[in-house]
Amino acid sequence: MKKITSLLLALSMIVAFSTVQAQSKKSHKKAAKTEVTQKKDQAKKEAKKESKKASEKVAKTEKKTEASAKKAESHSRKMKAEAKEDASKESATASKKAEKASKEAKNSDKVDATTTGPHGEKVYTGPRGGKYFINKNGKKEYLSSLKKH
User: Fold this and answer.
1) CA 22 to chain centre
2) What is the DSSP string of 39-88?
3) Are 116 and 122 in contact (CB under 8 A)?
4) Least confidently predicted of 34-38, 55-59, 113-117
5) Mean pLDDT of all residues in the chain?
6) Are strands 140-142 and 110-116 parallel, antiparallel or unpaired?
7) Confidence of residue 101 (pLDDT cuts 50, 70, 90)
């Protein structure tokens, strides 16, 4: 009987120990699941924070870019207006110069293609109708003065 009692006692201890171990495994699993869930939740919260920070940064950058673009557009408009003004001033100056050149051309001496000087020089007609040529010394010599001699 002692043997049976000791066997029963050993068997009951084994059963109790296995039950305790099973409960311990269950509690370990539960704790691990809880820990994993907590870590997932924490990771999600951190991801949301990072996403929010990134969105705010993008919004700030977009605002800065938009302001910079507006400033550049305004500067471009000013530069166009100045260029247009400069172009109109230059155009007015050019037309004045052209008008002056045309007046000078009207008043300047004209080449008379029908006659030549004594040595084949070009003959010019002066503003008052006198005909002359430029001699080899670079001076004007009137044809009328040649005929008198």
Assistant:
1) 71
2) HHHHHHHHHHHHHHHHHHHHHHHHHHHHHHHHHHHHHHHHHHHHHHHHHH
3) yes
4) 113-117
5) 84
6) unpaired
7) low
DSSP assignment string, 17-52: HHHHHHHHHHHHHHHHHHHHHHHHHHHHHHHHHHHH
Joined together, the tokens standing for residue 1 give 């009987």
Q: Which residues pair with 131 in a beta bridge?
A: 125
- Which H helix or E strand runs over 142? strand 140-142
Residue 85 Cα distances to 80, 93, 97, 101, 103, angstroms: 9, 12, 18, 24, 27
Is 132 exposed, middle or buried (CB count within 10 Å of its CB: 0-12, 13-18, 19+)? Answer: buried
Q: Check: CB of residue 17 under 8 Å from CB of residue 9.
A: no
